Amino acid sequence: MDETRKTLIFVGVAVVLALAAYIFSPSRITPDAFMDQGEAFYPEFTDPNTATTLEVIDYDEASGTARPFKVTFGSGGWTIPSHNNYPADAKDRLAQTAAGVIDIKKDDFRTSSAADHEHCGVVDPLDATAPGLSGRGSRITLKGADDQVLADYIVGYEIPDREGMRFVRLPGQNRVYAARMDIEISTNFADWIETNLLEVSGEKIDRVMLKDYSIDERTRSVVQGSNIELLRGEDNIWRMKGIGAVDKLDSTVVETLVSTLSDLSIVGVRPKPEGLSAELSDPRNDNISQEGRLSLQSKGYYFTRDGQLLSNEGEMNVRTTDGVIYILRFGEVLYGSGLNVTAGRSESGGGGDDGQGQANRYLFVAAGYENGYFKKPAEPRSREYLEKADSLWTDADRENKARQDAVDEWQRNVENGRQLAADLNNRFAGWYYVISEDSFGNIHLDREALTADQEG
C-alpha cells in the first residue's frame, strides 16, 4: 500500500471518528430554573412617572402585626393614607423609588421550594396562613392609574457576602432570586412630608411673645404666669421688653429659640374632627360640637368661661417681616414611638398615648395678619403726572409719582402678608401637630431661662 493511499485512509478514519464524537457527545443542558436569569421582573414597567401609589408592608415579629405605609396621588393631591391622608411632598421621591424598582433584575436563581422562604426572609407579611412569625419580608407594591399593579415584590434578607443583594420573590410564586437593590424604600413619615412646620427663615422673625400660663383642668381657671416680649432691633440684636440693658438677655438661648422655630420639625400629625376649624373661626366659640370639645380637651386645649381657647402649657406668638403672626399653643404631652407618635396608632392597632417611650408634645397652630404692620405712606397730592409725558414732569410730579410707587409697594406688602396668612391657616386648619420634647424645651421658655446666665 503506497503512502498516498495510507494517508487517505487515515484521514477518512479521523473524519468518521470526529463525526461520531460529535453525534454521540452529550449536549450542554441549561436547567429551566436558570432560563430567566438576568431578566427584569416586570419588563413592561419602564416609565417611573406612571407610578402613583407606593405601598410598603413591614412586619413586626415582636407584636406579630403587619405595619403598612402608603403614599398615593388622588384628587386631593399627594397624601399618606396610612397617616390620616396627611399631605405628602412625594412626587420626586416616588419617581426615584419607582426608577430603582424598574432596575431590579433576576440576578441569580436560588430556590423554588416554599420550605426555603422562611430562611430567605421572603414569607409574605400579609399571609395569615403562614405558621410562624419569623422570616417575613417587606412587601413593596407600586401601582399606576386605576390601581393597576406595576410591580409587586416580597423583599427578604440581605445575602451574606453579597453587598447590595437581597432575596426577592413575587407574591404567589415560590421561586426566590438574589437581586441587587440600589434603592432605599423609606417608610419614615418624615421622609415623605415637608417637616418644617412654619416654613419661615430665622432672619424673618422679628418678634416673639411668650405667654406663660397654664390651665387648671379641674376648675378651668387660668394660672397666669409672666408674659415676655422679645424684639429684634434694626441692629439685628434681640432685646426683651421691660428689662432694660441688652446684656441681661442670654443671646445663646434666644438664638436657639429662633433657630428651632425656623426649623420646627413635625414628628406626627392628628386630624381634627371635620368642621372644627370652621366652628373655631366663629369668635363667639359657642357653637363648638361636643365631638370638637372632646377632641380639643384630649390634646390639652380648653375653653375658659369667657370663651377663650387656651392651652394647658401656654402659647407663643411669632411675628415675621411679612406681617404674619403664628400662634403656637402648647398642649398635652404624648409618650410613645413609631406609629403611635406619627399617626396616633399603636403597633398593635390601637390608638392613643401608650404611656411609654419618648415624650413629645401636641401643638395647635394658627396664623393671622397684623393689621398696621406696614405703615401706609402718604398719598400723592396730585395724579396730574399720569396725563403728561415723563419728559414734561415737574419736581412735584416726580414727588407724586414716588409717593404713588410707595403706596403701591405698601399695598403689595399688605396683600402678600394677608394671602400668606390665609394660605398658612388653610394648611394648619385640619391638623393637630406633634413636636419633639426637645423642640418644645427650646421654645417654651420663661424669664428665668432667658436671663439665666445673667442673673443671680
What does the model show?
It is a single chain. This protein is an alpha+beta fold and 456 residues long. It folds into 2 domains: 34-192, no CATH class; 202-450, no CATH class. It is built from 10 helices and 19 strands. The protein has helices at residues 3-24, 91-102, 117-120, 251-262, 276-280, 290-299, 339-342, 395-428, 437-443, 447-450; strands spanning 53-60, 65-74, 77-80, 86-87, 108-111, 138-143, 149-158, 165-169, 176-180, 205-216, 221-232, 238-240, 268-271, 301-303, 309-311, 315-320, 324-336, 358-369, 431-436. The strands form 3 sheets. Strands 4-3-2-1-6-7-8-9-5 form a 9-stranded antiparallel β-sheet, with helices on one face. An 8-stranded antiparallel β-sheet has the order 12-11-10-16-17-18-19-13. Strand 2 (65-74) and strand 3 form a beta hairpin. It is extended, with a radius of gyration of 34 Å. The termini are far apart.
